[in-house]
Design brief:
By secondary structure, the protein is mainly α. The protein is 82% helix and 0% strand. Helix 1 packs across helix 3, helix 6 runs parallel beside helix 8 and helix 8 packs across helix 16.
């Protein structure tokens, strides 16, 4: 009996192995590419490069090996994604909340809620987008770019094409922000002599999309700006878990009730695990060297999930999405810069 069980287990592993190896190869190749100076200076993170690589292969070579690799690719897109989000908690500590102060916390909360609310209204009422696309672009714009889009996908059960469109949208405007924010600093700092480098860092971290993009933009201004920007950004990342819980409740409430059947509550347990990991990490019980290894593993897992998403995305699906998702991303981008600036200045004036 033990031999039969072991044989079935090995067969199961073999079923997933080709797809997992393919996504791992894409993740590692794009990680190497991202470390090249010419690519690194663009601020394109490993997740962005992984989905680009996945889309290229998904529309060229992948269809020929789809039958052998699909099981592993789906496993990476679903299971490894959740594990990657959980391990993301090792990048955070609750001490970081204290470092940005009350004003930083208030700013991040206001930016998240206002940006996502605006995404829902503009996307659904003005641009007539479907709910999933509007929510995914809203999540990516209001929290942490591609990682937030990926984390929201299993909660709302969105199609791969919609996820890819949302990721592409937040990547485009997030990358543009890398070059724009240093110009904004040099333009507004003479007009607002009371604005400190640290305060502009909080503005950067509370309004830009990706962590890597925040680092790149902050670094281009000053070390003080970079440090404040990263802390403010990681606080926004920490808000991902409660955001997913709220989204889960919204999905359940809006689901059509079937006769005599209760709608099952879809609770994003991986989001709770994410918070628990961040709490555990706050105790500093694990050596920094071990945390660094965990973060490297997490980078690979998330990149594999992005590669899997790219592999299952077809260019024809992106074309069918049209210009409306791009317009929503642009409107939110303008809000993050202008509205975010107004919110930052107001809160710093009141609570500074």
């Amino acid at each position: 009996m033990a031999d039969i069980s072991l044989h079935k287990h090995s067969q199961g592993m073999a079923h997933f192995a080709p797809g997992l190896l393919l996504t791992a190869a894409i993740a590692l190749a794009t990680a190497w590419l991202g470390n090249l100076p010419s690519v690194a200076q663009l601020g394109l993170g490993a997740l962005t490069l992984a989905i680009i690589g996945g889309i290229i292969l998904g529309n060229t070579l992948f269809p020929t090996v789809h039958g052998h690799c699909d099981a592993g690719v789906q496993f990476a897109k679903q299971k490894l994604l959740r594990l990657g989000i959980i391990l993301y908690g090792f990048r955070l500590t609750f001490q970081q909340v204290l470092d940005v102060g009350v004003s930083g916390v208030v700013i991040d909360v206001l930016m998240l809620t206002s940006t996502f609310t605006l995404a829902c209204w503009l996307g659904r009422k003005i641009l007539k987008l479907d709910r999933e696309t509007a929510w995914l672009i809203g999540a990516g714009s209001s929290i942490c770019g591609a990682a937030a889009v990926l984390a929201t996908e299993p909660v709302i059960k969105a199609e791969s094409s919609k996820v890819a469109v949302a990721v592409a949208t937040v990547v485009i405007f997030g990358t543009l922000a890398i070059f724009l924010y240093p110009l904004i600093w040099h333009s507004v700092s003479p007009l607002l002599p009371g604005l400190s480098l640290s305060e502009f860092g909080i503005y950067t971290g509370s309004t830009m999309h990706e962590v890597a993009q925040v680092v790149a933009a902050g670094h281009a201004i000053s070390p003080e700006t970079e440090n404040a920007a990263v802390i403010a950004k990681m606080l926004r990342v920490m808000m991902l878990a409660p955001f997913l819980v709220v989204i889960g409740v919204m999905v359940r409430r809006s689901a059509p009730a079937t006769s005599g059947e209760k709608q099952r509550i879809t609770f994003p347990w991986f989001a709770l695990a994410f918070i628990l990991v961040a709490l555990f990490n706050s105790a500093h019980l694990i050596p920094a060297s071990a945390i660094a290894v965990i973060n490297q593993l997490d980078n690979v897992l998330l990149a594999m999930a992005m590669a899997a998403l790219g592999l299952t995305t077809h260019i024809s699906q992106l074309k069918r999405a049209g210009l409306r998702p791009l317009l929503l991303g642009l409107m939110l981008f303008i809000w993050l810069i202008v509205g975010g600036g107004a919110i930052n200045l107001t809160i710093h004036h009141w609570l500074g």
